Amino acid sequence: MKVTRRIVVRGMVQGVGYRFFCRREAEAMGITGFVKNLLNGNVEVVVEGEVEIIDHFITVLKKGPHLSEVTEVLITDLRYENKYKKFAIEF
């Protein structure tokens, strides 16, 4: 089953390569969507794909790249629309 999820990652996740880490992992897993920095210091990720793959992706996001320090991951299910064709970093 395919799903769309919005993920907000809190902690030390800006300035440590977190968005590039997300894109690399998402592309490797065949997930589509986007990642972007938020003004409050968090990172927002919106992803579409198979539920099992998304669940694994979220586990990877909780660890993050080497220099990051993830303190909290908030997940919201959205309506699946098959909206994204690739995974992108948004600015």
Features:
about 90 residues, alpha+beta, Alpha-Beta Plaits, five-stranded mixed beta sheet, 2 helices
Kindly describe this structure.
The chain has one domain (2-89): Alpha-Beta Plaits (2-Layer Sandwich). The chain is of the alpha+beta class and 91 residues long. The termini are far apart. Helix 1 runs antiparallel to helix 2 (51-63). It has a five-stranded mixed β-sheet with strand order 4-1-3-2-5, with helices on one face. The chain has helices at residues 18-29, 51-63; strands spanning 2-12, 32-37, 43-50, 69-78, 87-89. The mean pLDDT is 98. Strand 2 (32-37) and strand 3 (43-50) form a beta hairpin.
Going by CATH, the architecture would be 2-Layer Sandwich
Quick one: biggest sheet? Answer: 5 strands, mixed
The helix/strand series, from N terminus to C terminus, equals EHEEHEE
Please estimate the helix content: 25-40%
Give the SSE map.
Blueprint: E1 2-12, H1 18-29, E2 32-37, E3 43-50, H2 51-63, E4 69-78, E5 87-89
Parallel strand pairs: 2-5
Antiparallel strand pairs: 1-3, 1-4, 2-3
Brief write-up:
This protein has 91 residues and is of the alpha+beta class. 27% of the residues lie in helices and 42% in strands. The protein has one domain (2-89): Alpha-Beta Plaits.
